[in-house]
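Here's what a typical entry looks like (Response regulator transcription factor):
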Amino acid sequence: MRVLVAEDHRVLARTIATGLRRQAMAVDLAVSGDEAERMCLLTDYDVLVLDRDLPVMTGDEVCRRLRELTDPPRILMLTAAGEITDKVYGLTTLGADDYLAKPFDFAELVARIRTLGRRVPKSPPAALRHEGITLDRARHEVSVEGRPLELTPKEFAVLRLLMEAQGVAVPHDELVRTLWDENLDPRTGVVRAVVSRLRRKLGDPGLITADKGQGYRLCD
């Protein structure tokens, strides 16, 4: 899941971003309303965590403008304005998808973001299966021939993307763009390192192949 956090309180923004990355989300940051709008026009974010009190352009105006797009990101307003009237205004008049008042519990923020990310026209099956591997997207669990497998959040996200591709090669750049944030240098060996650990844990080094010039894919 790719998330944009638009928050001008830099310490809070970095704290949120760090926590979401630990949940295997790719997170970018914007510190002003105009920057948030520009980034949403350039990148297909799944969820936008939007502070209402942003400089240059308010979060309210950002929300209004993005709602005019054909396929806008899901918008979670995160604000100190927590009165019922504020929530109703944000959800109805502004068109936000969800509303969370500060101060908030981080676990609730993660749960709300995941819920928004699941709101797609057609819900895919919760469990993916390939060559004895079962990946449960809802529970974030993986098993091999019925044996539970402990994966890091990033390893889980890579395996999920490869299983969803159903044997089609997933380009290296797509893995970076989907599962990491904009600060990762695509020339680093981070992706290769994660794939290498994943191969070892799955117990079959040949299960994930690197097709030169095409990317990574799952083999039969």
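DSSP finds eight helices and eleven strands in the chain.

More examples are in the samples folder.
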